[in-house]
Amino acid sequence: MLEVEELTVKVGNKQILHDVSLSVDIGETLVLFGPNGGGKSTLLMTIMGFPRYKVTHGRILFKGEDVTRLPVDERSRRGMGLLFQRPPVVRGVKMRDMIRACLHGRENGATIEQLAQKANMVEHLDREVNYGFSGGEVKRSELMQLIAQQPEFVMLDEPDSGVDLVNISLVGDMINQLLERDRMRSRTSSGLIITHTGHILDYVQADRACVLLNGGIWCRGNPKEILASIKINGYEGCAVCKK
Amino acid sequence: MQKVTPSDTSKGKARQAKAQPATSAVDVDLGAYSPEAEEHSYQKDPSQLPAADKQRMHDVGVIVDDTAQRTGTYLQIDQSVIHSKAEQEGVEVMGTPMALEKYPWLKDYWWKLVNPEADKFTQYSNTHPFKGYFIRVAPGVKATYPVQSCLYIAKHGLAQNVHNLVIVEEGAELNIITGCTVAPVKDEGLHIGISEFYIKKGGKLSFTMIHNWAPKMAVRPRTGVILEEDAVFMNNYICLKPVRTLQMYPTARLVGKNALARFNSVLVANPGSHLDVGSRVLLQAERTRAEIISRAITTGGTIIARGFMSGQVAEAKGHLECRGLILSETGTILAIPELEGTVAGVDLSHEAAVGKIAEEEIEYFMARGITRDEAVSVIVRGFLSVDIEGLPPELSAQIQHAIELSEQEML
């Protein structure tokens, strides 16, 4: 599904990622652990194609195609989706219009309402996009948009941050729906999840994990094992471990 | 039509005003326009009007083919009232000259909310023949559907002089949709519109005005509104099409306790257009409330978006919001929100923002697979869709229709 090869990325004049390589197979979900400022969000924003993130070396292959130079909307239309950690507020535009745009003409009368019902966002449909939303509402709004968009490859940037205990299980359910984690066979959706705390792993099964530290990949392995090790030794423990 | 002579007093005041300059930065030479226009014949059945004229009227929310959804209709072309009709008992719709003739007591309402000496346009209006609509709703009567009016200019070089009077009696309710426009081939012209609105105790007036002028038109409305106890005034103003110069600053005085006024304006300045538009609210009784919201977009023209709110008694509350979007390399938006409190205990606030569409917002949509152009379109449409609480669905639909019509031209 996704192959990132020796990616080096600059934001402004500052190099944030160095020679990062990773891959996500079809139907697979990869977790990316790492401390704040380690480059996790930069990696996702670069894969999605935001122009602020300049690839100075390496390339991104998506479903076999080199998408390194493609604009954001082209990548999205090829099947990429991103849950923003802090999405912008769009004054004036209603959630309903946003969801309609995400559906790309696939809506029928009931679809938007049904999606909103599942996301517990019915009363938000006539509110402005992300305006005055709580942490949990932002995540539910993002996931509702992604479920409408139906991407094959979903990147989730801290889906558990700012989400209270009441919301986290719903957020987990929505992620599982998006990644088809309820399905054992013929799963076609893939995921790349960033988590700082690992809370979301209580709700979403991931296949593999790696740690992104100081702009590079340091460790690869079983998500639960890596998380357990981080909980004991902290990211400092990763730093002394061999790359 | 009957000619009405304005009172000597107001004429005298007007003469003094003649020397005063206009309040807008763009001056209008009154000598360049003629008050003369041929008389247009009265149309008993306005659906018989030419298709092109009907289309122009339709674009500003005035429907003449099927008036089943209208409680009344007033149509004026140039200086002629070509149709006026009310369909509901307790609702009156007629030309103001006729109304002044019919009801001598109307002199107590005439030139009382707009000062004839305010500037040269009020002076002109007071000293020249005029037409305009008189709409009155009797006490306790709720107009079922909107009353619609169209002020139409067909003659090149005309100074159209309109003086409107609306009286919503105690406990009455009325929606007005008024469209001001020009004939498809129309070129230069001047529209002067004096409007005086009285909303009595417990009355409600929702006034939606859609302007659809032409690139060489000069427009000078002058509006005064007074609200008694528990009265509600909702003013929605939409101007999306080119106009050379438009300047207005309607003023609402809330003199009865618990009165509420809301002004929503949606403005687009195309290249060559100069719009100087504001709303002024004076909160003069306890627990009066007001909200002024304006959305301004320039695609190359100039917009001055003003707002003035004055809290003159404790417990008066108001909010003013000006937001401007610059969609072109050239173009100016000047937001001037002003708040005045003259006693302790008033609660007034404002927010203003002017800029281009944030790149971050466009990219957010693009990440959902939407092209840049579509993203801009969705954001602009959202920006212009002011939430107008309590507006009847048919009026919301008219506003939406006007926005959709102009959207393609704008982007």
Task: Describe the 3D structure.
The complex is a heterodimer of chains A (243) and B (411). Chain A has 243 residues and is an alpha/beta fold. A six-stranded mixed sheet of chain A has the order 6-9-10-3-11-12, sandwiched between helices. A four-stranded antiparallel sheet of chain A has the order 2-1-4-5. A two-stranded antiparallel sheet of chain A has the order 7-8. In chain B, helix 1 runs antiparallel to helix 4 and helix 5 packs across helix 6. Chains A and B meet through helix 2, strand 7 and helix 3 of A and helix 5 and helix 6 of B.
Show the helix and strand layout.
The complex is a heterodimer of chains A (243) and B (411).
Chain A: E1 2-11, E2 14-24, E3 29-33, H1 40-48, E4 53-62, E5 65-66, H2 72-77, E6 80-83, E7 90-94, H3 95-103, H4 111-118, E8 128-129, H5 135-149, E9 153-157, H6 165-178, E10 190-195, E11 208-213, E12 216-221, H7 223-240
Parallel strand pairs in A: 3-10, 3-11, 6-9, 9-10
Antiparallel strand pairs in A: 1-2, 1-4, 4-5, 7-8, 11-12
Chain B: H1 8-17, H2 51-59, E1 72-77, E2 80-86, E3 91-95, H3 96-102, H4 120-127, E4 133-137, E5 147-153, E6 158-168, E7 173-182, E8 189-199, E9 204-212, E10 217-227, E11 232-239, E12 245-248, E13 251-254, E14 260-269, E15 274-283, E16 289-298, E17 302-311, E18 317-326, E19 332-341, E20 347-355, H5 359-366, H6 372-384, H7 393-410
Helix pairs in contact in B: 1-4, 5-6
Supply the key terms.
heterodimer; A: about 240 residues; alpha/beta; Rossmann fold; six-stranded mixed sheet; four-stranded antiparallel sheet; 7 helices; 12 strands; about 35% helix; B: about 400 residues; 2 domains; ten-stranded mixed sheet; 20 strands
